[in-house]
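Write out the bound-state structure for protoporphyrin IX containing FE.
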Amino acid sequence: MSTQETELQKIRIWDAPVRVFHWLLVFSFAGAYLTAESEYWRLVHVTLGYTLGGLLAFRLVWGVVGTRYARFSSFVRGPGAVLRYLKSLRSGQPEHHLGHNPAGAVAIVLLMLMGFGIVATGYATYNDLGPDWLGEVHDLLANGMLLVIAGHLFGVVSASLQHKENLVRAMVTGYKAGAADQGIRRTWATVAVALVIAVLGFWWLQWQSAPKPDAGTAQTSQAVQTAQAAQSGQNKVSN
Ligand code: HEM
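---
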């Protein structure tokens, strides 16, 4: 979509749910990745993994019913469009897209599919469902996703430079420069707030089910006392 001939102004491209989804996804993936190896942080890892799954499920729905640039139909393109876009970058006259460009969309779809794969294999492993190698697939997918994220970041930075457009800022504020009639009308802040409340509520519920350190200590010391009492009883009998 060319915006070069029209007068540009600040227009809203990303609605609030897309932006909240994106940054919660970044937080959940980063947190889950960093806590993956530790037994101590297991509940945090699992909680952030489920959050990732919930966010992706939300985005699937929003990709159908959401605003213009959030819809999959507006940015998921076939290989022809991707090649055309990549060729245009080399020609020095890069095609400009107000929403996701076709190459960026490939990384986005891949990230979403890998995210679902990670959540499904993680759930199966955590709940002892299915064969043991699912755990290996889980690790492999998580590391593969890290590679795709590196590609995603490279794409974001290079597209920002090519188009002289700060894409990261747009993913924070929702705004880009474009023709007045190309912006979205509503930001759907209430949906974004509902998403944040759902995530915080889920985290709170998970926190409630976490083993309390005090209760653990009390139980342990009670168990030690019981064992000691049993031992002294045995000693008395044998004396
Ligand atoms: C865990 C790491 C990350 C994942 C899984 C991820 C995933 C995604 C996804 C799924 C989208 C599509 C958003 C949508 O339409 O709903 C997206 C877009 C985007 N992401 Fe990320 N992202 C990650 C990290 C980052 C980071 C660290 C940055 C910036 C520093 C970033 C910047 C962007 C930008 C600017 C877009 C919009 C690209 C465009 O204009 O087409 N992402 N990302």
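---
The chain has nine helices and two strands.
Residues 96 and 163 are 7 Å apart (CA to CA).
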